[in-house]
Amino acid sequence: MKKFLTAMSVVLGLGLATAQQTAPAAKTQTVKTVKPVKSAKQVTPAATTKPAAAPSGMKLKKDGTPDKRYKENKNLKKDGTPDKRYKANK
């Protein structure tokens, strides 16, 4: 009787353990068609382009970003536009 109860508890335990697993969802295949883009000019990334001209009095680093060591550049973002978090720029 003891062996029978042990076997039934093992069967019941394994049955409950496998019941908790979910079956993987069936994957459906979808076909996406992409139209080629016809572009006359080639687009260059913005990170590699340098700003055309710096505003007067603005000191720039070699990569073209404002140098934050100077007083006139303290409240500027990396792209040289005024940072709206400061009261003077609102």
From TrEMBL:
Organism from which the protein derives: Chryseobacterium endophyticum
Basic and acidic residues composition bias: residue spans: 60-90
Protein name (database record): Uncharacterized protein
Signal peptide (residue range): 1-19
Low complexity bias spans: 19-37, 44-55
Chain segments carrying region Disordered: 19-90
Keyword terms of this UniProt record: Signal
